[in-house]
Amino acid sequence: MRKPRKGQQAAELKHAKFRQLQEKIGIQFSDEALLIKAFTHSSYVNEHRKKPHEDNERLEFLGDAVLELTVSHYLYEKYPMMSEGELTKLRAAIVCEPSLVVFANELNFGEVVLLGKGEELTGGRRRPALLADAFEAFIGALYLDRGMETTKSFLEQIVFPKVDKGAFSHVMDFKSQLQECVQRDGSGSIEYRILKEHGPAHNRSFEAQVVLNGQVLGEGVGRSKKEAEQHAAQMALGKLNEL
Question: Residues with catalytic annotation?
């Protein structure tokens, strides 16, 4: 039996990696070539000129726009009390390079990116800009192949839960939102209380609660009193939005 040629082995290995990726994320692409293109770096294209390839830069351009739209829609619906300026700041924190790198690393995108030998040897698989670009390109490919609803479902699993858990709360002013909400409804006055302090001075944490007319609306924990109060306000807003 004839052994597969080296080029054929490489191609089979490549396709196997992308099949595994699709199994991992639970999404099957109709056009696997589009998925592969999303992970094709320009350095790989430069080293494989005999068989034409297209790099992921155009998909990255599209994915950036799709991310902006889907994240904007999500934030608009989730935070009805948030101003345009605050929404813009929060969206920027979600779609910035460091955040995209976190999303890409959780999915091990660095393992499947197709790189040229030089880029591989200089640690390209761990390079933040490359990983962020790959994530955007993947979103672009997913949108083209499966449409907006599947793209939104994917982001609901990978990105939006982090927003819900407060991963970007450092750029959000929940206390101002809560104050605005209470003033608009004429509900009364709010008060913040520091309940406990934990740990030594160099590694202290605080527990806070926010109270409206004697009723506890939310509690939060943080590395500073201000952060704990912000988390308490975030919990209170969530409770009020459910009413």
Answer: 64, 136
